[in-house]
Protein backbone atom coordinates (compact mmCIF):
# COMPACT_ATOMS: atom_id res chain seq x y z
CA UNK A 1 0.00 0.00 0.00
CA UNK A 2 1.36 3.46 -0.86
CA UNK A 3 1.81 6.20 1.72
CA UNK A 4 -1.13 8.21 0.37
CA UNK A 5 -3.37 5.11 0.46
CA UNK A 6 -2.35 4.52 4.09
CA UNK A 7 -3.20 8.10 5.01
CA UNK A 8 -6.57 7.90 3.24
CA UNK A 9 -7.32 4.68 5.16
CA UNK A 10 -6.24 6.36 8.41
CA UNK A 11 -8.46 9.42 7.77
CA UNK A 12 -11.30 7.01 7.05
CA UNK A 13 -11.42 6.39 10.81
CA UNK A 14 -12.80 9.96 11.10
CA UNK A 15 -14.73 10.38 7.85
CA UNK A 16 -16.82 7.42 6.71
CA UNK A 17 -17.39 8.83 3.20
CA UNK A 18 -14.79 7.75 0.66
CA UNK A 19 -11.77 10.01 0.42
CA UNK A 20 -10.45 10.05 -3.14
CA UNK A 21 -6.87 10.53 -4.25
CA UNK A 22 -5.82 13.59 -6.26
CA UNK A 23 -9.28 14.36 -7.65
CA UNK A 24 -12.08 16.28 -5.98
CA UNK A 25 -15.27 15.12 -7.68
CA UNK A 26 -18.14 17.48 -8.49
CA UNK A 27 -20.55 15.74 -6.11
CA UNK A 28 -22.13 18.00 -3.49
CA UNK A 29 -20.08 16.24 -0.79
CA UNK A 30 -16.63 15.02 -1.79
CA UNK A 31 -13.23 14.49 -0.19
CA UNK A 32 -9.80 14.12 -1.77
CA UNK A 33 -6.23 13.86 -0.54
CA UNK A 34 -3.47 15.30 -2.72
CA UNK A 35 0.26 15.25 -2.10
CA UNK A 36 1.66 18.78 -1.89
CA UNK A 37 4.69 19.59 -4.05
CA UNK A 38 7.06 19.88 -1.12
CA UNK A 39 9.05 17.38 0.87
CA UNK A 40 11.85 17.58 3.38
CA UNK A 41 14.26 14.65 3.75
CA UNK A 42 17.00 14.42 6.38
CA UNK A 43 19.61 11.76 5.57
CA UNK A 44 21.96 10.35 8.17
CA UNK A 45 25.27 8.48 7.82
CA UNK A 46 23.61 5.38 9.30
CA UNK A 47 21.26 5.26 6.31
CA UNK A 48 18.29 6.51 8.33
CA UNK A 49 16.06 8.95 6.47
CA UNK A 50 13.47 11.21 8.11
CA UNK A 51 10.83 12.42 5.65
CA UNK A 52 8.35 15.24 6.18
CA UNK A 53 5.60 15.23 3.55
CA UNK A 54 2.56 17.44 3.21
CA UNK A 55 -0.88 16.38 1.99
CA UNK A 56 -3.75 18.66 1.05
CA UNK A 57 -7.14 17.46 2.23
CA UNK A 58 -9.71 19.03 -0.09
CA UNK A 59 -13.38 18.98 0.91
CA UNK A 60 -16.45 19.99 -1.11
CA UNK A 61 -19.64 20.39 0.89
CA UNK A 62 -23.04 21.97 0.49
CA UNK A 63 -22.95 25.61 1.54
CA UNK A 64 -26.21 27.27 0.47
CA UNK A 65 -27.28 28.18 3.99
CA UNK A 66 -25.56 29.72 6.98
CA UNK A 67 -26.30 26.54 8.94
CA UNK A 68 -24.49 24.40 6.32
CA UNK A 69 -21.46 26.71 6.35
CA UNK A 70 -21.33 26.56 10.15
CA UNK A 71 -21.61 22.77 9.97
CA UNK A 72 -18.76 22.67 7.44
CA UNK A 73 -16.52 24.66 9.76
CA UNK A 74 -17.48 22.40 12.65
CA UNK A 75 -16.45 19.40 10.50
CA UNK A 76 -13.09 21.05 9.78
CA UNK A 77 -12.54 21.87 13.44
CA UNK A 78 -13.50 18.31 14.37
CA UNK A 79 -11.04 16.59 12.03
CA UNK A 80 -8.26 18.98 13.09
CA UNK A 81 -8.91 18.14 16.75
CA UNK A 82 -9.04 14.42 15.90
CA UNK A 83 -5.65 14.62 14.15
CA UNK A 84 -4.23 16.52 17.15
CA UNK A 85 -5.48 13.80 19.52
CA UNK A 86 -3.90 11.13 17.31
CA UNK A 87 -0.59 13.05 17.47
CA UNK A 88 -0.75 13.36 21.27
CA UNK A 89 -1.42 9.64 21.72
CA UNK A 90 1.04 8.50 19.04
CA UNK A 91 -1.74 6.78 17.09
CA UNK A 92 -0.29 7.17 13.59
CA UNK A 93 -1.07 5.68 10.19
CA UNK A 94 0.61 2.37 9.42
CA UNK A 95 2.95 2.91 6.46
CA UNK A 96 4.32 -0.05 4.52
CA UNK A 97 8.13 0.05 4.68
CA UNK A 98 8.21 3.16 6.89
CA UNK A 99 7.46 4.14 10.48
CA UNK A 100 5.26 7.18 11.01
CA UNK A 101 6.67 9.33 13.81
CA UNK A 102 4.58 12.48 13.58
CA UNK A 103 1.31 13.88 12.32
CA UNK A 104 -0.12 17.37 12.42
CA UNK A 105 -1.93 20.21 10.73
CA UNK A 106 0.40 22.69 9.04
CA UNK A 107 -2.34 24.80 7.40
CA UNK A 108 -5.73 24.99 9.12
CA UNK A 109 -9.09 24.16 7.53
CA UNK A 110 -10.14 27.14 5.43
CA UNK A 111 -12.46 28.10 2.59
CA UNK A 112 -10.70 28.19 -0.79
CA UNK A 113 -13.63 28.71 -3.19
CA UNK A 114 -17.43 28.80 -3.27
CA UNK A 115 -20.30 28.97 -5.69
CA UNK A 116 -24.03 29.35 -5.12
CA UNK A 117 -24.45 25.74 -3.93
CA UNK A 118 -21.22 24.47 -2.45
CA UNK A 119 -17.88 25.44 -0.99
CA UNK A 120 -14.42 23.93 -1.24
CA UNK A 121 -12.28 23.85 1.88
CA UNK A 122 -8.68 22.79 2.31
CA UNK A 123 -6.25 21.90 5.08
CA UNK A 124 -2.66 20.69 4.98
CA UNK A 125 -1.68 17.61 6.93
CA UNK A 126 1.98 17.09 7.80
CA UNK A 127 3.23 13.49 7.99
CA UNK A 128 6.67 12.66 9.39
CA UNK A 129 8.08 9.18 8.89
CA UNK A 130 11.38 7.37 8.90
CA UNK A 131 12.93 4.95 6.51
CA UNK A 132 15.79 2.79 7.66
CA UNK A 133 18.11 1.06 5.20
Summarize, please.
With about 130 residues, the chain is an alpha+beta fold.
Outline the secondary-structure elements.
Elements: H1 3-11, E1 19-21, E2 30-43, E3 49-62, H2 66-89, E4 99-114, E5 118-131
Parallel strand pairs: 1-2
Antiparallel strand pairs: 2-3, 3-5, 4-5
Structure description:
It is built from two helices and five strands. The two termini are 19 Å apart. It has helices at 3-11, 66-89; strands at 19-21, 30-43, 49-62, 99-114, 118-131. The longest helix is centred in the middle third of the chain and has 24 residues, at 66-89. The protein is 25% helix and 46% strand. A five-stranded mixed beta sheet has the order 1-2-3-5-4, with helices on one face. By secondary structure, it is an alpha+beta fold.
Structural class: alpha+beta
Give me the strand/helix succession.
HEEEHEE
Radius of gyration: 16 Å
- What ranges have pLDDT less than 50 throughout 5 or more consecutive residues? none
Share of helix among residues?
Answer: 10-25%
Mean pLDDT: 92
Order of neighbouring strands in the sheet with most strands: 1-2-3-5-4
Distance between the termini: 19 Å
Described by strand count, sense and barrel closure, the largest sheet is: 5 strands, mixed
